[in-house]
């Protein structure tokens, strides 16, 4: 069995943002030499997410608006978590909705996506350095 473990680092300059990481993950799959297996991509911070969806700018803006409607940042006093001195309770909730990780099959040495699927890093409490784990295993 072959495996590759890599950490991707992000420092999104705004509080929230989405980064398409598909190309980077595809490159790592090629470097791994795995032809048949699995690729795990996991956010390693509790206010960030990894998800699969369409790389269409309007949809990403829709995600932003939808998440803000479900868990608005302000007023920060609406969240018990923020009584600890934090102001990021909304970011924890947004991450919970969007998800911690994705697993994508590797078939014939490539990520086995459906039409339009791409991998995204979602940041909900940015302006600091965070990492994503990429683990590829298989034959």
CATH class: Mainly Beta
Which overall shape is indicated by the principal axes computed on the Cα atoms?
elongated
* Mean pLDDT reading: 98
Strand order of the largest sheet: 1-8-3-5-6
The major sheet is characterized as:
5 strands, antiparallel
Output the CATH topology: Jelly Rolls
Describe this structure in words.
The structure is a single chain. The protein is of the alpha+beta class and 139 residues long. It is built from three helices and eight strands. Helices cover 25% and strands 38% of the residues. A hairpin with a 2-residue loop joins strand 5 and strand 6. The longest helix is centred in the middle third of the chain and has 14 residues, at 57-70. It is elongated and about 50 Å long.
């Amino acid at each position: 069995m072959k495996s590759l473990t890599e950490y991707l680092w992000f420092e999104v300059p705004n509080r929230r943002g989405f980064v398409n990481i598909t190309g980077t993950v595809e490159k790592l799959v090629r470097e791994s030499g795995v032809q048949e297996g699995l690729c795990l991509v996991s956010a390693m911070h509790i206010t960030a997410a990894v998800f699969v969806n369409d790389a269409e700018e309007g949809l990403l803006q829709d995600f932003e608006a939808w998440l803000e409607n479900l868990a608005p940042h302000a007023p920060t006093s609406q969240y018990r978590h923020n009584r600890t001195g934090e102001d990021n309770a909304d970011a924890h909730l947004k991450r919970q909705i969007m998800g911690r990780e994705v697993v994508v099959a590797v078939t014939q040495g490539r990520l086995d996506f459906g039409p339009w699927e791409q991998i995204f890093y979602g940041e909900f409490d940015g302006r600091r350095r965070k990492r994503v784990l990429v683990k590829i295993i298989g034959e």
